[in-house]
Each structure stands twice: as C-alpha cells, then as structure tokens.
Amino acid sequence: MTLPPQAIDWLRSAKAIAVLTGAGISAESGIPTFRDALTGLWARYDPADLATPQAFARNPQLVSQWYDQRRCRVADCRPNAGHFALAALQHIAIDHGREFTLITQNVDRLHQAAGSMDVIELHGSLWIWRCINCGQEAEERGPAFGNYPLRCTCGGVRRPAVVWFGEALPADAVSQAQRAAASSDLFLSIGTSSVVYPAAGLIEQAIQCGAKVLEVNLQPTPFSDAVDCIIRGRSGEILPRLVQQAFGHKISGQ
Ligand code: BJW
Ligand code: ZN
Fold first, then answer.
1. CA angle 103, 109, 115 (to 5 degrees)
2. Which end of the chain is more exposed for a tag (fewer CB within 10 A), N or C?
3. Given strand 150-151, what is the order of strands in its sheet?
4. Residue partners of 195: CB distance under 8 A and separation at least 6
5. CATH superfamily of 5-29+78-123+169-247
6. Domain extents in the chain
C-alpha cells in the first residue's frame, strides 16, 4: 500500500506535532485492546465489574487480582515498531527544533520503554499502585503479588493507579494534552477507537483548532469522516514507513 503523499509532507513541514495513542498501538506487542469484538478485554469482561470505583469497593480482591494479572502479562511484552517509530519521530522533531507531544491512553508504559520522553499518561499506569487511605504511590515491577487486595503500611487498601470510568483524569495531564492538541498543526490519532472521553475530545479540539489530523487505525472511528487523512493498517507497519519516507530514518529496534 502506498502511503498518502500529503501525510509525508505534513510530517516534514509540521512545526508542532501532537500524537494521541490508544490500545491499538500495543496490540502488536501482544497486549489485548479493549473493544475488539473477539479479542478485546471488554468482549470477555464487563467493565462495570472491573473498571469502576464501585467495582473496586464491592470486590477489591477480584479487581486487584485482575489488574495484577494484566501487570504481569505486560511485563512479558516489548515495544513494537510503532512505539519505536514514535520515539524516533520525537527525536527527529527535537533535532529540527519542532514541538512534539505524545499523549497516551495506555497504561502499559511501552512508549517509555521504546525511548519516548515526557509521555502524557491520561489513564494512569498499571505499574503504579496507590493507597486509597494515605495516597502513597509506589512502582511495582516485581512478580505477581499473590495476596489480594494489597495493603499499605498505614493499613489502607492499595489500588492500581489507573483511571476508571467515572473518575477524573489527572488534571495536569489533561491540561497539557489540551494545550498540545490546540496548538498542534499536525495531530496523529493512532490505534484508538476514540469513544472514551475526555481523551477523544482532543481529536475534536485539534480539528477545531485547524490542525491537519491523520488517523492510523485498522477500523473506522467516529472521527473518520472529519479527519484530513486516514491510513487503514497496523500502526506497527504504517508508522515506521511514514517516518522512513518522511525523514529517511530506518526504524530498526524491536
Ligand atoms: C489498531 C491495531 C493496530 C487494533 N494498529 N490500530 C462524553 C460523552 C460520553 C461519555 C462521557 C463523556 N465524558 C465522559 C464520559 C464518560 C466516560 C466515557 O467516555 N464513556 C464512554 C465509553 C461512553 N468517561 C469517563 O468516565 C472518564 N472520566 C470522566 O469523564 O470523569 C468525569 C469526572 C470529572 C470530575 C470528577 C469526577 C469525574 C474516565 C475514562 C477512563 C477510561 N478508562 C479505561 C480503563 C483504564 C484502566 C485499564 O486499563 O483497565 O481506559 S477504559 C479503556 O478505554 C482504557 C482505554 O485507555 C480507553 C480507550 O480505549 P482505546 O485505547 O481507544 O482502545 P479500544 O480497544 O477502544 O480501541 C482500539 C483501537 O485500536 C480500535 O479502533 C482498533 O481498530 C485499533 N487497532 N489493532 C492500529 N495493530
Ligand atoms: Zn496508606
């Protein structure tokens, strides 16, 4: 498939690039998405039972164990060529004196593992667990916890520091992301179904503020009719080709 030439031109000429990623960028690393009809997490589990504060209050053991299983699964996963391409794009942008902001809805930290810097995490991280009593947070990189729920030294219950439905996103992350979307001249929407707000609102904002918007996704999204360019394909294949064709930079690391 030939890449749209305008997408290459926009990448070369953009002064401020903002990128929003979703679960699709990590799919090729072996991490399930949420809404894929067959393999998505929400095809097998009800989010109301696992991804709300009410679910955690009802059954902290079940919810903690489920998130710990996901944490351990992600520990075995490596960034793919899509993550590496975005890390390379950031370094190229910085070298050219351009603005670059990477905003992710993902909780896996594979962007950081690929070398991306200053990643804005809208929905938190699977690796950080927080005490609901004293608020203390700690990174947990070890093996499965085994006993659930986890307890803090203060006696409080600890939870994964992810953002569940009905919870506010980290305010500073949202404001940084909104500023980047509004001031971008090129906005890339990569591997997100774009149905979860306020993250999906960033795409709307970029469109309204006049950025060129490029969607890379296997499937249509609610914004497909509104964006400037769509590339249907796997981000792990499309993003390295875009970076290579725009800048001659070969993405090698896997
Ligand atoms: C590929 C690919 C490949 C596959 N290459 N592509 C406005 C309107 C309607 C509702 C709301 C609204 N504002 C707020 C709401 C409510 C709610 C919401 O949005 N609901 C809608 C779903 C109806 N939002 C919230 O509740 C948010 N909080 C909030 O608004 O609080 C208000 C408040 C303010 C002040 C005080 C208190 C409250 C919070 C949202 C939190 C979302 N959390 C989750 C779980 C995180 C933890 C965990 O990991 O378990 O975040 S839900 C889940 O969805 C996860 C994701 O980050 C998020 C987005 O999913 P994503 O990444 O788009 O994945 P998929 O699976 O949906 O899509 C994958 C895509 O990839 C697909 O398109 C594929 O085609 C594609 N793909 N392989 C390229 N190789
Ligand atoms: Zn505590």
1. 80
2. N
3. 137-139, 124-131, 157-162, 150-151
4. 35, 221, 222
5. TPP-binding domain (3.40.50.1220)
6. 5-29+78-123+169-247, 40-76+126-162
* pLDDT, tens digit (0-9, with 9 covering 90-100), for 155-185: 999 999 999 999 999 999 999 999 999 999 9
60-70 pLDDT, tens digit per residue, is: 999 999 999 99
Query: Nearest bound ligand to CA 133?
Result: 2
Sequence letter at residue 161: A
Give residue 158's pLDDT: 98
Statement: residue 252 has pLDDT above 80:
no
Verify whether ligand 1 is closer than 6 Å to residue 235 (CB atom).
Answer: yes
Q: What is the CATH number of domain 40-76+126-162?
A: 3.30.1600.10
